[in-house]
Amino acid sequence: MRSFLDGGPFVWLLLGLSVTALTVVLERAWSLRRDRILPRPLMDALADGDVARLRGACQGQPSPMARLILSILDHLPWPKAENVAALEVRARQEIAGLERGLVILEIIVGIAPLLGLVGTIYGIIPLLGDFGTNLQADNAFIAKGMSIALYKTVLGLLVAMPTLAAWSLFNKRIELLGLELESVCDALMRRHYLRDRGVGVGAMIGVVAEGVRP
């Protein structure tokens, strides 16, 4: 452990990156829970079909789903194409919010191995520069210097690999949550605009229930 910490500033930089990555991973894991994105009370209000109750549920359950539904409800007097366009803008904003912090993980995945490699090379250069002198003086000194230098490459890879796994998992989770949000919004839009065309209330509620079924 002592040899590991003797690696100099590159080791401390990599340790700082690991703490940053862990902080972002924990924050995203908490924020991307399904019940924070698609709250159950809001799903129940959506299936009920009562617009007033739905609006109240959205105001009481702040979430990406609530903001998307409020966007639809606020623009119901608009033609469908304009409502859809406004919803798409809002949806892009919400997806950007879900992806907040992932760029930090992506950067760490890219620079951690490179930083470790640079640290290794930086540590080897002095050893090679004085190779002849050090070899005659103490072989153990060369071995210790090489091992300390290689620790930096290992640490860089150890930081990058779990960060890459977390980044990939979060991206996939955001994709799946985005598809669920799209399904919910599509069902709500169809219910309203089908009603305007004279579709029966029973059929409309069936459409919505099918769209929001977990």
Low-confidence stretches: 198-214
- Please report which band the strand proportion falls in: under 5%, 5-15%, 15-25%, 25-35%, 35-45% or over 45%: under 5%
Please tell me the total number of domains. 1
Shape: rod-shaped
For the CA atoms, what is the radius of gyration?
27 Å
Mean pLDDT across all residues, rounded?
81
Report the major sheet.
Answer: none
Work out the number of β strands. Answer: 0
Q: Which tags fit this structure?
A:
single chain; 214 residues; mainly alpha; 11 helices; disordered C terminus
Written overview of the protein:
This protein has 214 residues and is mainly α. The chain has one domain. Helices cover 86% and strands 0% of the residues. The chain contains 11 helices and no strands. The chain has helices spanning 2-5, 9-31, 34-37, 40-48, 51-60, 64-74, 80-98, 102-129, 131-137, 139-195, 201-212. It starts with a helix and ends with a helix.
SSE layout:
Layout: H1 2-5, H2 9-31, H3 34-37, H4 40-48, H5 51-60, H6 64-74, H7 80-98, H8 102-129, H9 131-137, H10 139-195, H11 201-212
Task: Write a brief caption for the model.
The chain has 214 residues and is mainly α. 86% of the residues lie in helices and 0% in strands.
